[in-house]
Structures are given as C-alpha cells and as structure tokens.
Design a protein that fits this description.
Largest sheet: 8 strands, antiparallel
CATH superfamily: Glucose Permease (Domain IIA)
CATH class: Mainly Beta
Oligomer: single chain
Number of domains: 1
Number of helices: 2
Strand content: 25-35%
Length: about 160
Amino acid sequence: MGLFGWLKKAPEIKKAEFVSPATGKIIPVDQVEDETFASKILGDGFAVELTDGEVIAPFDGEVTAAFPTGHAYGLKREDGLECLIHIGLDTVELNGSGFDVKVKQGDQVKQGQVLVKVDLDQVTGAGKSLVSPVVFSSGAMFTLLEKEFAVKGEEILRLEQ
C-alpha cells in the first residue's frame, strides 16, 4: 500500500438481487404437488426441497406476513418486489409444531437473516412434504439460474427489469 493507498475506496461487493432462502433440490413450481402453487395462482416461482432447516430472507425488505403457524412468510422489497415463502406442503396443519419463528409481521429484515428454523424430522415425521415453494406475488419476471441444487444465501435467479 503506497503513501496514498488509504485514499482508494475498497471495491463494493454487489449483493445478489435475490438469493435462495433455503438449501435443497430445486423443483420448478409447476411440478409442485399442490395445485395452488403448480397452477401459479399465487405467482410464478420455484420450490426448494429442504435439506437444511434454516430459511433466510432472500433480500432486504419488510415482513408483510408471518403466519402464526410459522409455515409461510410474505416479504416485500423497497422497489415493490414481493415474494411468498411457503415452508413445506400442508404444513399449516402442524399448527406451528416444528417451526421456531424468528421474525414477525412488520419487521425489517436483511438479506440472509434467519426467518425461521424448521425441525425437518418433525415435519417429515408428521407425513408432510419439505417441498417449499417460493413465488413472486408481485408478478416479477425472472430467469432461474442453471442449477439443480440451491444453497441458502447464494444467488439463484436473475430478475428481469
């Protein structure tokens, strides 16, 4: 570092626009075994079959919905992008069992912040699927990156402007 090296700004690390909220196998939303998600009534998106029980915020924003059962979260970014993260299928029937909720409606979250910790064994032990749809309720257009496996916190898609 030269005499004036301290004047140089460190390079800015550009955050991904949207990171995977969970780790697991990627499933196209139209192949989810739930007609509401597969038909894209709630919006287009993708699903992750959880292999890790931590679910994180895919971007900085506001928690617009946090169901008391811990199974679903609505998030909204400052620019209007909205997504719904639904953990498992028919997991509302567990009445919160197996879900350790870390946020509440109205909270501001940062990308990577834990929304909920899920006891995967408890969910599967109750006969519920770990396939977790992530849909864009705001109608955002996106391109899913060519991956078969999602890793929470890693970029998973590119939003189309």
